[in-house]
Design the sequence.
């Protein structure tokens, strides 16, 4: 781990070392352009004061979400999940799980025996037309994937309990009732918002008439990640998703959650923060940049999920692209010329950031590969690579620092001195430095005496859904 850190910082140095050498050869031009680029990127680097301000605003928003009198207008809704019982390792049986939330959809079958976990799964695509079609089309697609999977597994004739990980903001009215508040992450299926998603699923299954399924739980991916990690680590009280979208869950004392209508005799309940919507009431204007404003304006849910749009995989690549375009137009990057593709929205994928930042110290092979082979540049200079990497670093570090500030706020809020944070999502998984950036930043932000671990959740969404289904049918 320490080595990963060191190589990250030495990478940073090298970017500037290389720049100095280039300065030596072409002093005036390179230095002034590079300096101008750095000045342009200054507003993408969060100061300590800004991070503190973010934390205090976020904490206020959490409290607003939990309090009855303020919940209605709160941006961070802090929905109670009705998950109050965690698995104890003694669950047994066969369970189905569905996992819908990004571009792919997964069906899983899980076999639980005492402290044993066997799993089989299949990924199905969700075509773009279905992501923005009608609710019936989406749920018919889900039911047909489920039927295909059950046939392949030779379980079509069994009646099995099913846990449904549905990774969109839902108002839960129990473990089996989730009213979709709004779509996020590029989904926009008509007729679903304001309705119970479990009902949609059941009706689609009934329309087919060939499956016997009992939907026993609906939960968010952050919730299933928390449940799944706590199965392995009993001190896991927080989970975070940094993937296509972003969110966090944590274990709250029931007495602090005024909006909870479930069993108040049980001391704890998992809260689904829905932190993606933090900022939707102008709480983040003090750090949003012109690029964040543009990303939001070009999205299908303008004005919503503003925090998510600064940190998650659906948007980070586009932020980088907007910076590259602006600096090219200002003629301080790529000598002022770039292929048409760079000017098309969505052309700079978030995974390119991870690839570019994977290059070893002083080497730019991944960066060149992205610029030459993915973005159609005819040629790129070493200095272009230094600058592109710098821009990627600014944007991924800003995301990591915002996530860290959010996690630290939660760690500081809960009454435990030893906390494991379960994390999942493509940005966290594939960015080469994200984990280290989180650890380093959170360390600076938690109150004295607290220790924490960041744990990668393996298959959390699917596992968690099966585990909650198992607990529900216990
Ligand atoms: C959704 C959350 C989800 C997160 C991560 C967000 O867009 O609102 O419910 O947990 O993405 O998938």
Sequence:
């Amino acid at each position: 781990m320490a080595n990963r850190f060191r190589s990250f910082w030495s990478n940073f140095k090298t970017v500037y070392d290389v720049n100095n050498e280039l300065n030596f050869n072409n002093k005036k031009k390179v230095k002034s352009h590079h300096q101008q680029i750095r000045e342009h990127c200054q507003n993408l680097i969060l100061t300590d004061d800004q991070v503190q301000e973010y934390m205090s605003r976020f904490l206020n928003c959490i409290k607003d979400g939990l309090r009855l009198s303020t919940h209605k207008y709160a941006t961070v809704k802090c929905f109670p999940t009705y998950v109050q019982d965690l698995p104890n390792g003694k669950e047994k049986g066969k369970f189905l799980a569905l996992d819908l939330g990004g571009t792919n959809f997964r069906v899983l079958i899980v076999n639980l025996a005492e402290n044993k976990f066997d799993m089989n799964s299949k990924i199905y695509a969700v075509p773009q037309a279905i992501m923005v079609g009608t609710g019936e089309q989406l749920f018919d697609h889900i039911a047909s994937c489920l039927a295909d999977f059950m046939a392949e597994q030779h379980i079509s004739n069994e009646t099995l309990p099913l846990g449904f990980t549905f990774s969109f903001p839902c108002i839960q009215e129990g473990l089996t009732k989730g009213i979709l508040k709004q779509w996020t992450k590029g989904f926009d299926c008509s007729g679903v918002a304001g309705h119970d998603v479990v009902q949609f699923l059941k009706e689609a299954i009934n329309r087919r008439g060939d499956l016997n399924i009992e939907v026993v739980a609906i939960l968010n991916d952050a919730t299933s990640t928390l449940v799944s990690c706590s199965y392995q680590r009993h001190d896991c009280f927080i989970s975070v998703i940094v993937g296509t979208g972003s969110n966090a869950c944590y274990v709250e004392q029931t007495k602090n959650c005024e909006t909870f209508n479930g069993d108040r005799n049980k001391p704890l309940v998992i809260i689904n923060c829905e932190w993606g919507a933090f900022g939707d009431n102008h709480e983040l204007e003090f750090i949003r940049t012109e690029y964040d404003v543009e990303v939001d304006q070009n999205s299908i849910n303008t004005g919503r999920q503003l925090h998510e749009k600064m940190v998650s995989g659906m948007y980070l690549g586009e932020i980088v692209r907007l910076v590259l375009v602006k600096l090219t137009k200002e003629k301080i990057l790529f000598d002022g010329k770039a292929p048409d593709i760079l000017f098309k929205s969505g052309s700079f994928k978030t995974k390119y950031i991870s690839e570019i930042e994977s290059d070893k110290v002083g080497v730019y092979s991944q960066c060149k590969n992205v610029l030459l082979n993915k973005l159609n540049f005819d040629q790129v200079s070493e200095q272009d690579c230094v600058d592109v990497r710098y821009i990627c670093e600014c944007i991924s570090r800003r995301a990591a620092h915002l996530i860290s500030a959010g996690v630290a706020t939660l760690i500081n809020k809960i009454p435990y001195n030893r906390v494991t944070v379960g994390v999942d999502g493509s940005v966290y998984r594939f960015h080469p430095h994200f984990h280290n950036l989180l650890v380093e930043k959170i360390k600076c932000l938690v109150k004295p005496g607290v220790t924490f671990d960041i744990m990668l959740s393996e298959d959390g969404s699917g596992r968690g859904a099966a585990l909650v289904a198992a607990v529900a049918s216990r």
About this structure: The longest strand covers residues 104-113. The longest helix spans residues 382-413. The chain is about 45% helix and 20% strand.
